[in-house]
């Protein structure tokens, strides 16, 4: 398994609408395995393929608490088939926006259709933090970051600070 570097915003590779996966073959399974390993290592509760520079509609998620048994999920071509009218607000983070958090309101329950590790069509219903995490990861597949759900003033502050940190890092490494 390979641990892959996570792309930090602002970066045009995080703003791409990813095309669907044609089939779940060994190459795709390898990608899913590497993404899950990377997610656990960083650590995070989700990861989307564009965050590691792969423009394919693949996400991995495990929103269980550290005291619970792990429940890793690997999803290709996830599609929202239903969302509740009831909303939930969670403080979201993102591995591509390290150290920044903000409250985001989304449907509290969702039903998602996807291709599993064997390429079979499945559906899951998720609620609470799992539903939030799946929606956050699905947003990544359309080039949407959690800061796109908050005020443009707060978004601008966060992205400018990250851009400044990147410039400083590049200068120190030059
Ligand atoms: O997509 C990502 O960048 C992963 C992100 C997912 C997420 C977090 C919170 C709400 C919605 C989606 C993260 O995993 S950020 C890190 C994080 O939340 C976490 C890390 C370690 C333990 C527990 C949580
Ligand atoms: Zn994210």
Strand content: 25-35%
Detail the poorly predicted runs. none
The SSE order reads HEEEEEEEHH
Bound molecules: ligand K1U, zinc ion
The strand order across the widest sheet is 1-2-3-6-7
Helix content: 25-40%
- Output the number of helix runs: 3
Distance between the termini: 31 Å
User: How is the main sheet built?
Assistant: 5 strands, antiparallel
Secondary-structure content class: alpha+beta
- The backbone outline, from C-alpha atoms, is globular
Radius of gyration: 16 Å
- How many strand segments? 7
User: Mean pLDDT, as a whole number?
Assistant: 97
Description:
The chain is of the alpha+beta class and 174 residues long. Helices cover 29% and strands 25% of the residues. It is built from three helices and seven strands. It has helices spanning 26-41, 128-140, 152-173, and strands at 46-48, 58-61, 73-83, 87-92, 102-107, 109-115, 121-127. The chain has a five-stranded antiparallel beta sheet. The longest helix has 22 residues, at 152-173. The protein binds ligand K1U and zinc ion. Residues 94-96, 136, 140 line the site of zinc ion.
